[in-house]
Amino acid sequence: MLFKKDDLRFGMLLGFIAPLLSLVAYYFIKFYPLFSVRDCMNFIAENKNQITAISVPCLILNIALFTVYINTSRDKTAKGIFAVTLIYAIAALLVKFIL
Fold first, then answer.
1. CB 85 within 8 A of CB 12
2. From CA 55, how far away is CA 74, in angstroms rounded?
3. pTM of the predicted model as reported, rounded to 2 decimal places
């Protein structure tokens, strides 16, 4: 099965996709159908405090994936997930406080 792999690139792919899925779910829960995706992005750009509200669920999904892969001794995949999680977290902080 695909999810039984132990590969760094696979972990990075999972770590990249999981927050995007969480972001899509956040959009549908909070904004759809009243607001378009563009309206949602404009709202986030104008309200920097929303970056934390959005990034936390995204990163929690990665933490859950990381925990599953660590507990099943697939360390290479877990390292990939962890690396991408750090990149997401740093990017969220940069966007919130610098941009």
1. no
2. 25
3. 0.82
The pLDDT tens digits along the chain (99 residues) read 566 778 899 999 999 999 999 888 888 988 888 888 898 888 888 888 888 888 888 889 999 999 999 999 999 999 999 999 999 989 888 888 886
If you search the block for the tokens 């959005």, which residue do you land on?
54
3-state secondary structure of 91: helix
* Closest of 35, 85, 97, 79 to residue 58, by C-alpha: 85
H or E segment and range at residue 93: helix 75-97
Look up residue 31 and give its two tokens: 């904004």
Domain boundaries, the chain: 2-97
Residue with the two structure tokens 């929303």? 50
